[in-house]
Structures are given as C-alpha cells and as structure tokens.
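Consider the tokenized backbone below.
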C-alpha cells in the first residue's frame, strides 16, 4: 500500500526466469526472485537524492528523491517513484518515459509549445528527443517507467 493513497501498485513480469538479477535493493531482492510481480513498496528503499545540473536550472534550488523500485537485468528498464521540490530546469530526454503524477503540481513546457499543467492522476509519455522545461510548482511525486535506448 502506498502511504499517500492507500492503493497498491504492481508491476507484472513476463517470466520467472527473467527475475534473476532484478532490482538494486537487497531488501526487495528475495521478493523479486520468488514472485512474478514487484510491489511498489518504498519503505525499505533509501532514496537517491539529486539536483539538476547547475547549467540547466532556471529557477529555485530543486531537489529530487528517486526510489528505484525495479531494474531489468540489462539495465535498460527502470520503474519507481520520483519526487521533486519547487524549481524549474531544462530537460532533454534520450529515453522513453511513462509517468503518472501522484501528488503536487508541475508544468511541462515543450520547446516551442504551450505549458502543460500536471496534477495528481495525470499520465503522460515523454519520448526520446523531447526538450523543454520541467517546472515544479508544488512538490511533485510521480511513478515512472523508463526505457533506455
């Protein structure tokens, strides 16, 4: 259960044999090796803390926490939760990402496009080649699935 909503989120895997080597967190590795699904349980995961590169920050001092819940054996597929504090920065996507906003308010503005306001329940796909500005208006949490090229 996610503490913020009380809902469970489950990622289904294709085959049990694909589970070997999954995950980066030893606390969830046993579950991942014995199950055909992975629950989004961040209680035992220490989040990674990061900020956008200084030359990309447009406003504020945003800080992001990332709970990477699952990773494919080839290191090209990731899923988890991301949360960032207010600020604005330039983004450039080389990867494909699906995400759902869990809480907060962000505005994504594609280069040459109109601002898109994102709030809880909104879902989007960002494809390789997307460039623009991500602005966190109110601390935002999203669940994500990222596929690297």
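A designed sequence for it:
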């Amino acid at each position: 259960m996610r503490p913020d909503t009380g809902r469970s989120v489950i990622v289904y895997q294709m085959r049990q044999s694909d589970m070997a080597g999954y995950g980066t967190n030893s606390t969830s590795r046993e579950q991942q090796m014995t199950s055909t699904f992975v629950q989004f349980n961040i209680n035992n995961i220490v989040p990674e803390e990061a900020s956008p590169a200084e030359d990309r920050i447009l406003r504020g001092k945003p800080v992001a926490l990332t709970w990477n819940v699952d990773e494919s054996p080839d290191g090209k597929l990731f899923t988890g939760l991301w949360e960032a504090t207010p600020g604005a920065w330039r983004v450039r996507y080389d990867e494909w990402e699906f995400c759902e906003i869990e809480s907060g308010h962000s505005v994504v503005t594609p280069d040459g496009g109109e601002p898109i306001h994102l709030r809880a329940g909104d879902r989007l796909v960002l494809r390789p080649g997307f460039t623009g500005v991500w602005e966190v208006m109110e601390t935002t949490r999203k669940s994500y699935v990222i596929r690297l090229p």
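The chain has a mean pLDDT of 82.
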